[in-house]
Specification:
The chain contains 8 helices and 9 strands. The protein has a 6-stranded parallel β-sheet with strand order 3-5-6-7-8-9. A 3-stranded parallel β-sheet has the order 1-2-4, sandwiched between helices. The relative contact order is 0.16. By secondary structure, it is α/β, with parallel strands linked by helices. β6, α3 and β7 form a beta-alpha-beta unit. Helix content is 41%, strand content 17%. The structure holds fe (ii) ion. Fe (ii) ion binds next to loops.
């Protein structure tokens, strides 16, 4: 399988992910061994920070990786995991936070206090900024009944959803993810790896489980969605 990791904190020293170049190297080598050919580097973009400053730091870290790591590793595509907050879409140049050369932007929702403003911000991202939000690790939010209601509402829309590899490896979260596919949600997978020991990349294991438990069709659909995103093509439910 030729895999894409859409969510990875692999860049050194920019967030709570890889703390140095050696950790970055270990993560990238592990991804390569799992069949990952492309990794979207998604450091945390935290609310109210300067987009220019974020991009500058991210690109400097990426440059360092390219210059210093000479192992056979996956191609790294710059992106961000963008913390959504009330008023975010009033900012300009949000397109700089997208996956490089696309209009797709990985959005992290708050873990608490979900409210109508979230839909308004997502709507403005699409309408005002002409961007296409991908909701990061939706599997991690289903902790309260209140959130469940919001997740269900999100699933009714044509929003793209990124699922964490780890969610497929645990029985309880796997049943949640199963719901996404039963409802024909548009999904892609990411490892959300932060380091080589605790929050590591388990993408290959996840795809193997996916194929076994959910079948070849779901697997192919997810791989196809991923390729389309990197080509900046539209993804539709039907
Ligand atoms: Fe993350």
């Amino acid at each position: 399988m030729d895999l894409i990791d859409f969510h990875a904190h692999i860049l050194p020293g920019v967030d709570d992910g890889a703390k140095d170049l050696e950790e970055t190297r270990k993560l990238l080598v592990s991804q390569k061994m799992q069949g990952v050919s492309r990794v979207v580097a998604t450091p945390h973009y935290l609310k109210h920070t300067s987009i220019s400053e974020f991009v500058k730091q991210r690109d400097a870290a990426l440059e360092l990786v390219k210059n210093e790591i000479h192992d056979d590793v996956p191609q790294i595509i710059p992106g961000a995991e963008v913390e959504l907050y009330y008023g975010f879409t009033r900012k300009r140049h949000l397109e700089r936070l997208c996956i490089q050369n696309t209009n797709y932007i990985l959005i992290e929702l708050p873990f608490e206090f979900w409210n109508e403003w979230i839909y308004e911000e997502l709507y403005q991202l699409s309408v005002k900024h002409k961007l296409r939000p991908i909701i990061a690790h939706l599997d991690r939010y289903i902790t309260t009944v209140r959130n469940l209601k919001f997740v269900n509402k999100l699933l009714e829309k044509d929003v793209l959803i990124q699922v964490n590899a780890g969610a497929l490896l645990r029985f309880t979260s796997r049943s949640i993810v199963k719901e996404f596919w039963k409802r024909d949600a548009l999904t892609i997978l990411g490892s959300d790896c932060h380091d080589s020991i605790g929050r590591k990349c388990e993408l290959l294991k996840a795809y193997t489980v996916l194929k076994k438990k959910f079948g070849e069709d779901v697997l192919q659909k997810i791989l196809e969605n991923g390729e389309k995103i990197l080509k900046n093509q539209d993804i539709f439910r039907y």
